[in-house]
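Pasting two entries for a bug report.
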Amino acid sequence: MASSFTSGTLFLTVLTLAFAALYIQGTLGEMECGNLEHNNCAFAVSAAGKRCVLEKQVRRSGQEAYICRASEIEADPSVLRGYVETDHCITACGLDRESFGISSDSLIEVSFTQKLCSSPCYDYCPNIVDLYFSLAAGEGVFLPTLCVSQKEDLRRGMSEIKSSGLVAPGPIHPVKFLAAPAMAPSSI
């Protein structure tokens, strides 16, 4: 009896989340990053497949304003377009909706990598895993290998990553990342 209640509850939860995602996408129409509120911007993907980034601007008056813009970084085509990341995935992956820009710096933080590589994040949040897979590749690291080494020897896994400090630019300075090299070219 308890198992049917648990599976029924799980089914209703999944069904509710699916309807909520459809409702959000339906109310937003052709979702563009510029139309998102700042608390839904980070980790969203526009209808055109561009990743949204949150930027903070300081006005002449000294007042801070948050703006959501499309970056030039494209999401994996198999990931939903016009997608706002779920609160479940933000929490499971140890992220913050008010993150500015897109950076690989968080991959060197032990607590973040543990959450990213955990089953609730890695297995159920393909949008976030796709983003950090690409960021890790830009640093010359294969994310699945990092996750395996993180479980075996956390310090060895972290030593493989050296932060470049690069933050993906917003639309003011567009840069296309079609593919990141697995390792830097050697000089001859």
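Entry 2 (this is the one that rendered wrong in the viewer):
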Amino acid sequence: MDEKQIREILKRYNEGSCSREEREWVESWYLDMVDKSQSADITDTEMLAAKDNIWQNIVKERPIGQNKGIRYSRIVAAASVIVIMGFAYYFFNSEVQLKNNTAIENYAAIIPGGNKAYLTLADGKKINLTDLDSGMTITQEGIKVIKKSNGELVYEITDAVASAAQETIGNNTIETPVGGQYQVLLPDGTKVWLNSSSSLQYPVKFSSNERRVTLTGEGYFEVKSDKTKPFKVVSENQTIEVLGTKFNVNTYKDEPAVRTTLLEGSVKVSLANETEILRPGEQSAIKGQQISIQKVDTEQAVAWYRGDFAFEGAELKNIMRQISRWYNVEVVYQGDVGDIKFGGSISRSKDIQEVLKVLSMTQGVNFKLEGRRVLVML
């Protein structure tokens, strides 16, 4: 296997188009490099020494079938990130060194977001859930709202409220700021995770014929099944209708399309004059008044609620929009970044310096932090 072929495999890995076996080979080789180095500071000499043996190492150390899950977990634990193209750049271009990006290290850490949200009750009272102690209970007209130790907000309804008319109860709204996320267990048992800079409005008691909520930003839903009451998510000019299922909705205004990704069950996505049915593994994209459907890797869409950024085949601007919302930073581009794509995953628990260092390993892209501004330079 010559250098050109190695480059092609690494390029396919970066774009997310390599085969499962190629992916396992590359990730297994990377794991062993990390294990052997015992350090994140792998020198140029080590990288150049690996150049002639890279393919032999990948093949020799590829994971055995029954150990794939264990080895992949070790990859994540040992390295936190898998962006192989960055290392490929070192292998084949000895003149570039990470020290050129030391501007990233000269600033105080910009920490990641966390469980932060505000709850607005039906009477207009606004509560900072971040400051609310675990186990605390908020009471509103017979409704108990409890903050759990994991940050989840749980609703408990008394028998008196359960028999009351929905109109007498009113709506609650939960909002996450930039750099915030939150989880809420709705009165019907539906679980919702809100991403950064998002909001969810919902009735404290659902009506007798439907369960309707309004979403802005991004949310992941695990809807409690109730065939007598369809669950509807209203956002912008679309309505999503389900009976019981798992799906993700991304409605951020700075994204090129409103996207709904289905993991389980079925979902009906409706515009004013068009309706489409999604099946597991499909994603709808709404641009203007048109709906398009495509098969996708659902793990990419829901990685955020599991605590990761997932960048398989993602363009740089898409990645930077996610980073901007999670770390509450402004992104400024100096030059045309085009359609540069990345591969791999990065934990959202890392501070921004670590994330940018990894992304900076990709050929031709550098970053500089100026306060809470990230400069992207070619």
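Dev reply: Rendering is fixed now. As a check, the viewer should reflect this: The mean pLDDT is 78.
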